[in-house]
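for the record, two folds in this file. i put them one after another cuz i was lazy. first one right below, seq on top, structure tokens after. the second one comes after a little note so u can tell where it starts
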Amino acid sequence: MEFLKRRRELVDDRLVEVLDAVEQPELADELRHVSLSGGKRVRPTVTVLACETAGGYPEDAVDFGVGIELVHNASLVVDDIIDQSEVRRGTTAAWTEYGYGPAIIASDGLLGEAFALFSSDPQAMQIVSEAMVELGEGEATELAAQPTNEREYMELARRKTGALFRAAAELGAVAADADAYTVEALGEYAERVGVAFQIRDDVLDATADADDLGKPTGQDAEMDRPSVVQVTDLTPEAANERAKAEANAALDALSTVESGNTDAREYLEDLARFVVVRER
């Protein structure tokens, strides 16, 4: 675990540096509240591990990892407003703590800080921009044209969650100056991990205890939100099996990558297996 701890510390230390450099005090407080209140840092960890798997060094990918975490946090601020979720990561959601206007400004501020970290690399900018288009289309679909079957749900999960995971891994590969094949293979791995993550998230919302999860449960049903349990014929048990199938496909994609760091690769493999059994 020391291996992962070191990489998370790199991300957390750089994240604090970025937030400490925000000049406007109120905005800085809001960004810290959102970004430093916890979180598993899954996406930036994927960025760093993908970089190492592709032959780079963890330090090469830290800025991109922090950037993708900030994009993710910005999307959570908006999600909580839409869902009227008052708790995030065991603490008050941004809109609950500061109000709607400041929360939206905080989301914008997070995106601004993120794109400042990507701006030095045109390929990174393209990767993140494409992921945000997918994310926006996914959010719009969820609100306006809800899926009604498994195929449509899987497309929503790919856009809403898989796309940002894909970007996280592709950014790591870009940081390592990997070839196009490696960028694509790591991207497919991560996208499928993201879809598996989303399916498991939906199952936990339907079956877990709120205190154990660290956020309200039953939100999908209450908000009439299209979860895998709501819009498919899958039971929670069958949905978990579907998530495992995605995780196995992720492992297949990862197996095609010639690894520069076998420890990093093994942790990516562990992540694919973990997301389908996690309890938080």
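(here's the note) second protein begins now
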Amino acid sequence: MKLQPIMTVDELNSFLDTDFPQVHTDGKVFAVTGAGPGFATMRLDPNERHIRPGGTVSGPTLFALADVSAYIALIAHIGPIALAVTTNLNINFLRKPEPEPLECTCRILKLGKRLAVLDASITPVGSDELVAHATATYSIPPR
């Protein structure tokens, strides 16, 4: 599968700002950092709202990072289709993430006309130690 993104990192961040501003409810903690053939990367800079007792990034925050990253990887390759929606997302929490910046790399495993299957790996920025791994399926609306 030879996928090429059709949106740039700047266009993807702009799309989040204009079409999905809810992602910035807690301030700009999510940012698209890369897009390439079959993948996209995002960064999360957690704030106090994202930390749970015990000093770790919360599970719902990691889930959101995986989900938004999958959405960005998909639209980077199909264009700014706001109504592409998650139909399934499974996540495994593997290690306690420290309250520090995290990066999610999301790869497209299959891109069909109506469904896409993606894989998301979350690590601390600058590390390759997985803290969470997710798989997602997205429904793509008919054109």
